[in-house]
Amino acid sequence: MSKRSKGVNNFKIGKSGGKDTIAIYLRKRGFSFEITCQNFNGVFDVVVVVPCYDELETLPVLLNSLSFNDAGLISKTAFLFVVNHPENAPADKKQKSTATLEYLKSVGEVGFEKSGVAKTKLPPAIKKPGAKKIIETSSGVAGTKFPLAIVELIEPGSEVPAANAGAGYPRKAGLDAALGLINRERPKNSLLVCLDADCEVAPEYLSVVHSLAKKGTQAAVLGYKHRADTTSNLKAIADYEVFLNSYTEGLKFAGSPYAYHTVGSTMVCSAEAYAKAGGMNTRRAGEDFYFLESLAKVTSVEVVPDILVFPSNRISERVIFGTGKAMMKHAETGEKIEPYPKFAFEKLKTFLEIYTRPYEPAVSSSEKFKAGKLNIPPVKRLFEPAISQSEKLESRELNIPPVKRLFEPAVSLSESKKPNLDSITLPNGEIERTRPGSDHVTSQDQVMRQLEYNSNPVTVSTEEIGRLNPGSDPVTSQDQVMRQLEYNSNPVTVSTEEIGRLNPGSDPVTALTEEIGRFDPKILQFLESHKFSVAMRKIYASSKDPLQIIRRKHEWFDALKTLKLITFLCNM
After folding, report:
1. What stretch of H or E contains 55?
2. Phi, psi (5° rounding) for residue 419?
3. Which of 37, 63, 433, 499 could form a disulfide with 150 if both were Cys (CB 3.0 to 4.6 A apart)?
4. What is the 3-state secondary structure (H, E, C) of 319-354?
5. Using one digit for the tens of pLDDT, what is the confidence trace for 122-180?
6. Secondary element (H or E) of residue 269
7. Rounded to two decimals, what is the model's pTM?
8. 529: left (phi > 0), else alpha (psi -120 to 50), else beta?
């Protein structure tokens, strides 16, 4: 009987004094179920973990396919079976657990040949050219000693809690126990491999897995294809695979870091990555989705294209969603399984391009100019305090045409005793601009301003003066001109397009939200429902390195939020 004890682990801090990630994980979050049956000694670079609940009929099929792998690699691989059932399982299911346990023990004791597991040919689903040669050259494969270990979760006190009835709990129990079978000196090259009891594997399955361990792969998913065991749902399983692949390929097209399939029987990770990711969860369903999401936050997930795993296409009620549930729903309703539409991933692609841009805090153009970060055209530009046009006239700083212009206090024509138009030197148009009651300084200032616009000032071009309000200070004037230059030129540090997106004085989060809002307000609304701006401000406040900011952004907009956004877009 397996017993679970908290806070127990067999790992010690390494000689170097560094942290033992696996020991820390087991102490804080690990299960410690005993391995009750083990027909080998030593440690392994590869441990394959197989949960078994009511799988007495399917186990021989799995073992048969394993027997076609290279005999040498079989002997170098530990196979850990977790025989389990929920505490509220029917009596007949509990009896099958006992029978399954006895069957596995017999295989471990007498090997493939005497147990009747090994067959003379590969199953049709996975037979391929060259398979016969593998069987012939792998001498003694049928009688190979099968390195087998068992964790029992079938006795009162160790059964799977009813609240955790599903694949997550027994898978975690097996993976945590497998940490005691791997090479402690090589945690990055020791692989934990997930497999299901209703699967078959290709003859090169172990060869590929061991090559992944040797090269130090930290996380991967293996290629898969559902079998055609249940002939009544062949069309349904084909449509379901198209549905699954449409999501994976869509994420790949959009540039998402979560572009991998989430089939539990194809997951592979190193012992170190497993511990860093917090280990397997105990969810009733979707444990594979959430586990891979956790892995993707600590390392990249490699996609192995070779089809190595062949899950069953059977109808199942064990889990609340997944392949079995989808097949059952199709059988009951006849509802067609449609792939994800491409437009949703096109929107996701544009969003991710905006989301991962390096937004920097905006600074004034004058600050950038002083810092030498603006690529200004080779034109000498002088900026002086803005003064009234009359002051400029007195200091002779205006380039005024050689015309004598007199300004007197404006009076109404009726107040003038003998108006003599000939004595007035201003043209009629200028007199019309002079309002009765205005003083001569104001009049002069108005005329001078018009002269300034129409003439060719010495220090500043007409276009720039037009942008400068009289009375502004030189810093403001310079900042205005520099900003315009910045938009129209090619700055050294930031592209023109990015500067155009940043409002002067705005922070990067504001710039980011504004850009997403312009692209699609509904997507921004969806993100804000998950406290997008709050999360982004925390990321920018606590991160300095741009690469770290992007990584933390991906951690926030994780696989689950990606799935929710795609679902949201599909339902719009």
Report:
1. none
2. -60, 125
3. 37
4. CCCCHHHHHHHHHHHCCCCCCCCHHHHHHHHHHHHH
5. 555 455 444 333 333 333 344 557 899 999 999 999 999 999 999 999 999 999 999 99
6. strand 267-270
7. 0.70
8. alpha
